[in-house]
Amino acid sequence: MTAIVRALILLLLLAGGTAVRAQNLLTNGNFEAGLAGWSTWTAPPGFWDGTWIHSNDCDIWVPTQCPFGGAGTSHAQKKGSGAGNAHGGLFQTVAVTPGRVYRLRGAWSGGVTGNAGGNATWWEVVAYDGAVGAATIDAAPGPLDTLIARRDVSNLALNGVFQFQWEPFDGTFTAVSSQVTIALKTGSFFTFDAAGYHDDLVLEEVVSRNIPVNSPWALVVLCLGLLATGVWMRRGQRMCTT
Question: Which of 32, 56, 71, 173 is 20 to 30 A from 217 via CA?
Fold first, then answer.
């Protein structure tokens, strides 16, 4: 009886510890290798007559601490005072498993100076279903996409300023297809200088520590539990008859 109980406890401990450490599915999520693994995207020309400069320095709207954490490098996208209206950013497509839950987290910062009336600026992190390009990323997220994080400001006064320091973002989504595109988006119009910064991005599968009901572990534990219960009941009956 004691040996069975010990075995049952051991199996429960082993089953509870079978969850493996999730790996980062993003390539170069900390930007220590510059922009390696990432692609830049820009909205079609027309209203958007400006472009973002992508780099790893901090010379426009510098956060209090740059790079993030005080060491290494961070991604920076920026436009100067005469750069016009700009909408763009970075994206990366990775393989996922349909139906599974994923978590995207990281840190970001941004700032902008107002110019003409009706100005607006926004910063977004979006998980787009499938392998998509600039045309899709330029639009608002669809029903199968997930907006992970957003900051925005509008109608700043002439030379009025807005800035948010490094802060974390975090969100989850359920994969619909076998690929997902992670997009970093910053848009700004009728403004002077503006910038967005990103660092320490991690995309990982959310691994449950619960034992699936139909798993082999669950069946083994159930059988041992029933066996232990039966032995205990038979032992109790023998003690009562003596």
Answer: 173
